[in-house]
Amino acid sequence: MGRPPCCDKSNVKRGLWTPEEDAKILAYVSNHGIGNWTSVPKKAGLNRCGKSCRLRWTNYLRPDLKHERFAPEEEELIIKLHKAIGSRWSLIAKKLPGRTDNDVKNYWNTKLRKMLQKMGIDPVTHKPFSQIFSDFGNISGISNTGNLNKSLNTSLMSEPDHQFSSAILTTPEHSCFKKTMEEQVQEYNPTVTHPTSWDFLAQFPVHDTKQLPLFFNEVSSSCPSSTPSSSSTSTFTQSYSCQKSQAPLITPTCTFTCTEFLLSDPVSSTEFQHQQEQYDFDEMFSPTNSSTMAMAQNDVSSCNITSTGSDDDWYLNRSVGRSTYDHGTVNNGLEENNNAADHAAYYSSSASSFVDGILDKDRELHSQFPPLLDPSFDCY
DNA sequence: AAAATCTCCAACCGCACCCGT
DNA sequence: CACGGGTGCGGTTGGAGATTT
């Protein structure tokens, strides 16, 4: 089933490239240029998959690539762009001359994401953890937060990494970095004490089990390498999935992340206030982007959460189709509600605020990233 | 000094899109 | 329109080197 492999994996060399192999690629490209990578290994005398050759060239051998450390300005730009468009590494890389999407992705995963977490910023939503805690408390009815595990203090309450660009720290929009996470949480929700890690959330009583999987989906996406946590004490077992094939008749047409849906109040009229963080740039700035329905996506929404819990163990599994993460739909939050009429009324009532939100975000991004709005900006 | 652990990043994987046939 | 090959993309892995115990 599915697509056959591009080459016989058992007969091609894999792993690190040798200088000799690099030289062959360079020689081939200098003589023939780029094109039809499938035939490159044979023509260049390499026992490699064509795809591997292309990757080696685009990520490492291209003469226009930088190989030095990221500059503070680059760090700042990555963070800003990630905040605006999410993990569209190729798009972000296009704004960083000499950097590849792989470079940017690796730098984000190994450095910037951790920096933000240490500073109390959720790297997915770019919101202070405190705000998320507060919002989560609001929607789940969390009141008993006194049992937060102090042992978790180390993960997020540690000293800020002072290698982090001072330019970023002094950017007004990141001024929240100057506060510890504890301060932030106290500010947003005085009832919360010693918030330290996402893990601690698993200790909370679950008042609305329909919302829990969505929350953990986003947590999982914040921490891609989520592994069983021995410090958690969750006591739930729940499986959640939402796929296009299972979607209700009402096709959701707004695009925002699961977190943003979750963090909003699903029954109020303000649910779209936080949803515009991760729109597609191309859609965001398309001529039709002001139309609510222009946000409609055909992408498969396929989130799969599996939480198995004992007193000392939980794990999360997230399986998301390529575009799904960026186009998370409200299906995610309403999967178990099969009342199509409710859905229709729900979306109808929120349409105006949704449009307003889009327009507001549009203006915000216009002022924040004018260069990206230039016609020459190549989204795809 | 050795072992264990961590960090970083090159490379791989699989899926989706594009485009020619 | 359907199909298939080539390419782009984002998520994940493996292992070398660095750091800590």
Key features?
elongated, Arc Repressor Mutant, subunit A, Myb_TF_plants, 380 residues, mainly alpha, 3 domains, MYB family protein, DNA-binding, 3-stranded antiparallel beta sheet
Structure report:
This protein has 380 residues and is mostly helical. The chain folds into three domains: 15-61, Orthogonal Bundle (Arc Repressor Mutant, subunit A), CATH 1.10.10.60; 69-205, Arc Repressor Mutant, subunit A; 207-380, no CATH class. Helices cover 40% and strands 4% of the residues. The protein has helices at residues 19-32, 40-44, 50-61, 72-85, 89-94, 101-118, 129-140, 153-157, 166-169, 181-188, 212-222, 258-263, 281-284, 331-334, 340-368, and strands at 238-242, 303-310, 313-315. The protein has a three-stranded antiparallel beta sheet with strand order 1-2-3, covered by helices on one side. The model is unreliable at 142-183, 185-359 and 370-380 (pLDDT under 50). Keywords: DNA-binding, Nucleus, Repeat, Transcription, Transcription regulation.
Secondary structure topology:
Blueprint: H1 19-32, H2 40-44, H3 50-61, H4 72-85, H5 89-94, H6 101-118, H7 129-140, H8 153-157, H9 166-169, H10 181-188, H11 212-222, E1 238-242, H12 258-263, H13 281-284, E2 303-310, E3 313-315, H14 331-334, H15 340-368
Antiparallel strand pairs: 1-2, 2-3
The structure holds a DNA duplex (21 and 21 nucleotides).
Keywords: DNA-binding, Nucleus, Repeat, Transcription, Transcription regulation
Domain Myb-like: 9-61, 62-112
Domain HTH myb-type: 9-65, 66-116
